[in-house]
């Protein structure tokens, strides 16, 4: 009999809900991927790269043009200069980047502070590295302040002599929360006081709304000096299936990251790397992304206001939360399955992002909608939701 390394892990809620959506022919507003194609020019660039002969193993840390393009983008946007040769590694998506970063830095017995609710790959990765996850809940929305927020005093109190890593994710999946300058100030003080390494998942960096600038840790030299920054081209260019991301970190950390990376995947799809490197020469696709997704956010938000759901503000990401307490008092996972089965719209329960999804404290009658969809898809979903 096999002794499981992850005895508490089964099929993820994302797989469960997507399979149920397929079986019921429901509209899938659950899993976070677009139902539209990327820019045809980007697809053509992949074709060109293949025809140019970029079809064999590329350089292990990533092809030079892409690492340079990543360095240029970050320095232009956030002011920090990562060296493309020593500080940047191209990965097979942000999830592999996270696993690599955690395996490279966390040792058996180390603690890792995570913010709950959190993306479902964080805790299993920590456990596989032999670490212990220490969850700190975000402050939930209040009547006079309808946003999830970090209570930094609680984060600081959770850090002990055994803490190796503080893992953050902003813009935040699933809540859409974003950071501001005061949050970066608090982070700087925590890192300065404790010497903890900061792992910053910034997969949604270009999806921040209402004219707000993304508060990347790369904006603060003191943070960048002790941080691993993770990005995702899948979210930025509507190519989640290409699995293309990256890690940026000081050279000493990058050495350790690459030791794990080379034995985890060795390297990443060659033609996709060359295509994205060329595509990045034009900044407009990612600079225009907030406007593109804000229109979809507003479309879904206004549509949900005409239903019995109560939508919450979404400052960032392509997700929006909604309260269903006026419809039902059943637990979130049960409600999500009922909504998919009976009304043909798949969503994700927020309780699934907590370590104890069945606990009453994890069930606040909240579900997550993904609005990275065609307008026609959103409109059809809203028609169905208005009948709930």
TrEMBL record:
Residues 26-385 form the Aminotransferase class I/classII large domain. Keywords: Aminotransferase, Pyridoxal phosphate, Transferase. Its cofactor is pyridoxal 5'-phosphate. GO terms for molecular function: kynurenine-oxoglutarate transaminase activity; pyridoxal phosphate binding. One of its GO terms (cellular component) is cytoplasm. It holds the Pfam family Aminotran_1_2. InterPro entries: Aminotransferase_I/II_large, Kynurenine-oxoglutarate_AT, PyrdxlP-dep_Trfase, PyrdxlP-dep_Trfase_major, PyrdxlP-dep_Trfase_small. Belongs to the class-I pyridoxal-phosphate-dependent aminotransferase family. This is Aminotransferase class I/II-fold pyridoxal phosphate-dependent enzyme. It comes from Pigmentiphaga aceris.
């Amino acid at each position: 009999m096999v002794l499981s390394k992850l005895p508490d892990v089964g099929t993820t809620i994302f797989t469960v809900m997507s399979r149920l959506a397929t079986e019921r022919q429901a509209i899938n507003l659950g899993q976070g991927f677009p139902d539209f194609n990327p820019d045809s020019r980007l697809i053509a660039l992949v074709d060109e790269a293949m025809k140019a002969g970029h079809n064999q193993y590329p350089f292990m840390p990533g092809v030079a043009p892409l690492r340079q393009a990543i360095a240029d983008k970050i320095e232009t946007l956030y002011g920090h200069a990562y060296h493309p040769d020593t500080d940047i590694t191209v990965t097979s998506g942000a999830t592999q980047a996270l696993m690599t970063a955690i395996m490279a830095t966390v040792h058996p017995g180390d603690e890792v502070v995570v913010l709950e609710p959190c993306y479902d790959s964080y805790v299993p990765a920590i456990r596989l590295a032999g670490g212990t996850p220490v969850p700190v809940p975000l402050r939930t929305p209040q009547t006079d302040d309808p946003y999830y927020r970090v209570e930094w005093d609680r984060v600081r109190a959770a850090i002990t002599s055994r803490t190796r890593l503080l893992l953050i994710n902003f813009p935040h999946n699933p809540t859409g929360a974003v950071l501001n300058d005061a949050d970066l100030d608090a982070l700087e003080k925590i890192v300065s006081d404790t010497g903890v390494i900061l792992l910053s998942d910034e997969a949604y960096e270009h999806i921040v709304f209402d004219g707000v600038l993304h508060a990347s840790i790369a904006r603060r030299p003191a943070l960048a000096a002790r941080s691993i920054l993770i990005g995702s081209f899948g979210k930025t260019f509507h190519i989640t299936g290409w699995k293309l991301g990256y890690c940026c970190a000081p050279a000493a950390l990058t050495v350790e990251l690459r030791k794990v990376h080379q034995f985890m995947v060795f390297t990443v799809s060659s033609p996709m790397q060359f295509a994205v490197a060329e595509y990045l020469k034009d900044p407009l696709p990612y600079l225009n992304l907030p406007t593109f997704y804000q229109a979809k956010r507003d479309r879904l938000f206004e549509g949900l206001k005409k239903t019995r759901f109560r939508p919450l503000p979404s400052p960032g990401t392509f997700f929006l939360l909604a309260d269903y307490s006026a419809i039902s008092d059943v637990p979130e996972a049960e409600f999500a399955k009922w909504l998919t089965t009976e009304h043909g719209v798949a969503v994700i329960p927020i309780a699934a992002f907590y370590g104890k999804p069945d606990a009453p404290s994890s069930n606040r009658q909240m579900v997550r909608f993904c609005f990275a969809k065609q307008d026609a898809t959103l409109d059809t979903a809203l028609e169905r939701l208005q009948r709930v």
